[in-house]
Amino acid sequence: MKLYLDTGDTGAVREAMALGVIDGVTTNPSLVASTDDSYRTVIANLADIVDGPLFVQVLADDVEGMVEEAHGYQQWADDIVVKIPATREGFEALGRLRETGVRAGTTVLFSVEQAVLAAKNDATFVAPYVGRLDDAGSDGVGTVKRIQTIYDTYGFETEVLAASIRNTTQAVALYEAGVDAVTMSPSVLDDHIPHPGTDEGVAGFEADWGDRGSPLTE
Ligand code: E4P
Questions:
Q1: Whose CA is nearest to atom 8 of ligand 1?
Q2: Whose CA is nearest to atom 4 of ligand 1?
């Protein structure tokens, strides 16, 4: 299972990389816009520290513009995967890019139908928006499961990258579903760590050890 960090913040990426658990970083125009830097600067700074793929989203909404941006992003860093919204123009651009070997996939994805069109275009990944689906009263995790089942049935190699994850409950449900990949914000990743039982257990061991000092020197 791949775990990506969903952010444009290099500081957050460094912290998460120190944990040794992330396989890459996903960005989107909102995350990049929340920094003070240009799109290219944010991506270049992330590329300097990320060990793994960097997902970068197109902003154009016409086919030619999307293809041009996708090719432009390839010049910014080595391990770029292009994110293209699930629109008619997006699917056309995706097909053209995949034919030329550019790694690209479908984002802002809300339905099984869109996921089938993406896989038929040999998408590198699809990013179903779990949290936004739940916000709209749909079943985000259920949608991911249905997409994975269909992909397994037909042997599609497109990676299912669950996105828009709001909390660890959704994350755990996706792990239990055997999802290929997840992307989450630094705060949802951090929420994987704390547990009162762990704090209590560590405090108990420290209390029992008392002031006997370092086990290396006692
Ligand atoms: C990831 O690739 C998406 O852009 C991101 O997960 C969307 O999350 P949001 O619904 O919290 O904006």
A1: 164
A2: 28
Q: How far is the CA of 164 from the centre of ligand 1 (A)?
A: 4
Active site residue 145: no
> Hey, what amino acid is at 9?
D
Ligand 1 centroid – CA 129 distance (Å)? 7
**130's tokens:** 């779990």
Q: Whose CA is nearest to atom 5 of ligand 1?
A: 164
CA dist 132 and 108 (Å) reads 9
Distance 130 CA to ligand 1 centre (A): 9
pLDDT, one tens digit for every residue, the chain (218 residues): 999 999 999 999 999 999 999 999 999 999 999 998 999 999 999 999 999 999 999 999 999 999 999 999 999 999 999 999 999 999 999 999 999 999 999 999 999 999 999 999 999 999 999 999 999 999 999 999 999 999 999 999 999 999 999 999 999 999 999 999 999 999 999 999 999 999 999 999 999 999 999 999 87
